[in-house]
Write a structure and sequence with these properties.
heterodimer, A: mainly alpha, 11 helices, 0% strand, B: alpha/beta, Rossmann fold, Alpha-Beta Plaits, 14 strands, 31% helix, disordered C terminus
Chain lengths: 237, 324
């Protein structure tokens, strides 16, 4: 666990040394700002539903770009060899990398807390609903980042990692559409698997343990799979 | 300190390492010698726990590198051939990171010490990406020793450096060898004779020979050789030289230079000099030729005869096969 934190700290350091991270943060905040203004001007409602409801689409691109570097670059530069010959376990590498991406994402999200301030000053938002909504944003982000981390472990090319990540995220959302084609248990299973249903519960202010468990298990599964890929690539080498 | 038993490694159908066994004692500086693709890097990657072996086992400080990998890795400092470093970090931040991962106590001090030993203190706050190849190599060495490991594994530590940097790195390795067990790979032969107390020669995945440079010479060289240069005397000297006791063969290398092969274990230099002087010839030069590591290496790793460049005529050897 301590190793994961050491790796996370270095990874955060690397984020701030790279222009990509600043660019992603700027794009993320710009898009959120647009949705915020659109929501307020269009609906005249003291909520962030418009911002958070659209975030799923923004994250499809933001998450893979944030994670593409994490392991692809280690493989590309060969630094993975020194990392894995240090007394560090693969899951600690995967977890540390994930934590860095998540902390960066959480910091970006914290910046959107400014909107809450605006809502409180000019209106009467339901703070409980907003809290649940932000929890949803963090959980959805964690899941997408874990997926992006996984695709970054598959290749040494950062662009390939990002493209795979985008395809992965889009596929998850498409399961939702797919579920409409079915009825009965198949539909239930499919709509449980897709992140959208769980997400809309949360941004509407409903904290259901099932939704939280869904996101946490999704995130942990992909961190676990990432560790498996790191080990598997050693056997292949 | 390092024990390797019947180690083999397959990459698909390609057998990169074939039943290699050796043992390295604490405090030895051992050179792993072989042409490119011989299996040196594979051996090192298995020792560091980066690659799993196909067959056989290896242990470091009594810990199996595969089963007890984490514990074994704590005893290792490793410098891979490509010197992979995080270019966006400063030297100090990077060394601190590697020290933290290896649970070094009093990290700040350890980092300062490692930088001092590798002579990069003045570059401590430079970004690694801005450093020259030679400096990066030293940063790589610094991260390998920052946790004071028992065993240092260095893959081609001087490759791609300029001559002055090579000398610096070799000196550094020699210094490190006084406290650490060092195993370094190279395909540059003088490097081994200058830095290593023992040599392991690997060829096509097989360990073909091991020993000190002297032992290897004795193993391969079946005659002691003397080279002489005479003033103004050519082929006509051959019968006289051949007539000296214990001389096995004489060859004319250049106009006036002869190479005399004598029976192993004999020193015929004084007798040769006397004979030359007795003939009234001028003896311009006389020295015994020890077999260079290059020659030993070629002898061990080439199945058929290869003609060396004309400037360095290939010495005559018995054709006994050393592989056997």
């Amino acid at each position: 666990m301590r190793n994961a934190w050491i790796i996370a700290k270095r990874e955060l350091y690397a984020y701030f040394a790279s222009p990509v991270a600043y660019l992603v943060a700027a794009a993320y905040l710009f898009l959120c700002g647009l949705f915020f203004i659109g929501g307020i001007a269009g609906w005249r409602e003291a909520s962030l539903q418009m911002v958070h409801g659209s975030l799923g689409i923004v994250l499809i691109f933001v998450a893979p770009v944030l994670t593409m570097r994490l392991l692809a670059r280690e493989h590309d530069m060969g630094t993975i060899e020194l990392l894995l010959t240090a007394p560090v376990q693969s899951w600690e590498v995967a977890l540390g990398k994930f934590l860095a991406a998540f902390i960066f994402y959480a910091a970006m999200t914290a910046a959107t807390g400014l909107y809450v301030l605006v809502l409180v000053i000019f209106g009467h938002p339901d703070l409980g609903t907003l809290a649940a909504s932000f929890l949803g944003v963090l959980l959805l982000g964690a899941a997408m980042l874990a997926l992006g981390l996984f695709t970054s472990a598959l290749t040494k090319n950062q662009v390939v990692a990002a493209v795979l990540g985008v395809v992965g995220c889009v596929s998850l959302w498409l399961i939702d559409l797919l579920s409409n084609l079915f009825t009965g248990p198949t539909r239930q299973v499919l709509s449980y698997l897709t992140p959208s249903g769980h997400y809309y519960n949360l941004i509407e202010g409903l904290i259901d343990t099932r939704d939280v468990v869904y996101y946490l298990s999704f995130t942990l599964l992909f961190i676990f799979l990432t560790a498996q890929v790191i080990d598997a690539r050693r056997w292949q080498a | 300190m390092i024990t390797v038993e019947h180690l083999s490694k397959n990459y698909g159908f390609f057998r990169a390492l074939n039943d290699v066994s050796f043992h390295i004692e604490r405090g030895e500086v051992v050179g792993l010698l072989g042409p490119n693709g011989a299996g040196k890097t594979t051996t090192m990657r298995i020792l560091t726990g980066y690659l799993p072996p196909t067959e056989g086992r290896a242990s470091i400080a009594g810990l199996d590198v595969f089963e007890d990998s984490l514990a074994a890795r704590r005893h290792i400092g490793y410098l891979p051939e490509s010197v992979p470093l995080y270019t966006e970090m400063t030297v100090r931040a990077y060394l601190d990171y590697m020290a933290a991962l290896r649970r070094v106590e009093r990290r700040k001090l350890a980092v300062e010490r490692a930088m001092a030993r590798c002579h990069i203190e003045d570059r401590a706050d430079d970004l690694i990406g801005t450093l020259s190849k030679g400096l990066r190599q030293r940063v790589g060495l610094a991260q390998a020793i920052v946790h004071e490991p028992d065993v240092l594994i260095l893959d081609e530590p001087t490759i791609g450096l300029d001559p002055r940097q090579i000398i610096e790195v070799r000196t550094l390795i020699k210094e490190l060898g006084q406290e650490h067990t060092v195993i370094l790979s190279t395909h540059i032969l003088p490097e081994v004779s200058q830095t290593c107390s023992r040599v392991l020669i690997i060829h096509q995945g097989h360990l073909v020979a091991e020993g000190t440079p002297d032992e290897l010479t004795a193993q391969v060289q079946h005659s002691s050789r003397v080279r002489i240069t005479l003033g103004g005397v050519g082929e006509e000297a051959l019968p006289v030289l051949k007539g000296i006791a214990d001389v096995l063969d004489v060859r004319l290398l250049e106009e006036n230079t002869f190479e005399i092969a004598c029976a192993p274990g004999t020193d015929r230099r004084a007798e040769i000099a006397r004979q030359v002087v007795r003939q009234g010839w001028d003896l311009l030069e006389l020295h015994s030729v020890s077999m260079s590591l290059e020659e030993i290496f070629l002898k061990l790793t080439t199945a058929e005869e290869i003609n060396l460049s004309k400037a360095e005529p290939r010495p005559e050897f018995d054709t006994e096969d050393v592989h056997a």
